[in-house]
Design brief:
The complex is a heterodimer of chains A (65) and B (134). Chain A is mainly alpha-helical and 65 residues long. Chain A has helices at residues 5-11, 16-23, 27-34, 42-52, 56-59, and strands at residues 2-3, 60-61. Chain A has a two-stranded antiparallel ribbon with strand order 1-2. By secondary structure, chain B is mainly alpha-helical. Chain B is flat. Classes of the chains: A mainly alpha (65), B mainly alpha (134). At the A-B interface, helix 3 of A face helix 4 of B.
């Protein structure tokens, strides 16, 4: 699954550790989501969307359109 | 309390209880080997006493798993699964060799070896899966 997490984080000038702290997860989890090695659960995806003030589908999209 | 604080506290508890376990194990083993314990119930209680710190180690490890985030839980699930299946299949296969071919090619392995094998494979699995999701 593709996502815009890295660019959204960069826009706000947050480090991975800052974002991890805000989401209550480890920095490794943020990195794994950004590098698309791990797809977050629905509750975490909602949390990310809420934090950035966007809808889930504006941040995450399927690999193939 | 933040999940990371709970994890740190639980990790510290694991270290403390492992230390207690080593002391109790050494003490109970020494008592049973060096002193003549004639009372069977007392001997049983001394022999089983290392289980008490093990229960606290178990509780602390469960707290760590419970307070880990979802990726860490996935890594732990994969590591524990790898460890359990590899140990299970390995000891089962060795057990068959031991049963049907036996001594001297296949020496019996003590059942106390199984836990250290599982822990070792759990660590190997954790290193691999942490690397995969790094």
């Amino acid at each position: 699954m593709k996502n815009l997490l890295k660019s959204l984080r960069a826009e706000r000038d947050w480090s991975q550790a800052d974002l991890a702290d805000k989401l209550g997860v480890s920095r490794q989890t943020v990195n794994a989501i950004e590098t698309e090695k791990y797809d977050p659960s629905l509750p975490l995806a909602f949390k990310i969307a809420e934090l950035f003030g966007k809808k889930i589908e504006e941040i995450f999209s399927p690999e193939k359109h | 309390m933040k999940p990371i604080e709970v994890m740190v506290r639980s990790l510290r508890n694991v270290a403390i209880w492992l230390f207690v376990y080593a002391i109790v194990l050494t003490a109970s083993g020494s008592i049973l080997l060096l002193l003549p314990v004639t009372n069977k119930l007392l001997g049983f209680l001394i022999g089983i006493s290392p289980v008490i710190p093990v229960i606290f180690i178990l509780i602390s490890i469960m707290q760590i798993l419970q307070h880990s985030d979802e990726l860490q839980q996935k890594i732990q699930l994969l590591s524990i699964g790898f460890s359990a299946i590899t140990t299970g299949l390995g000891t089962f296969a060795y057990g068959l060799l031991e049963q049907y071919i036996g001594y001297p090619q296949y020496l019996p392995i003590p059942s106390t070896f199984i836990l250290p094998i599982m822990v070792f494979l759990w660590a190997i699995g954790m290193l691999y899966f942490k690397w995969r999701y790094r």
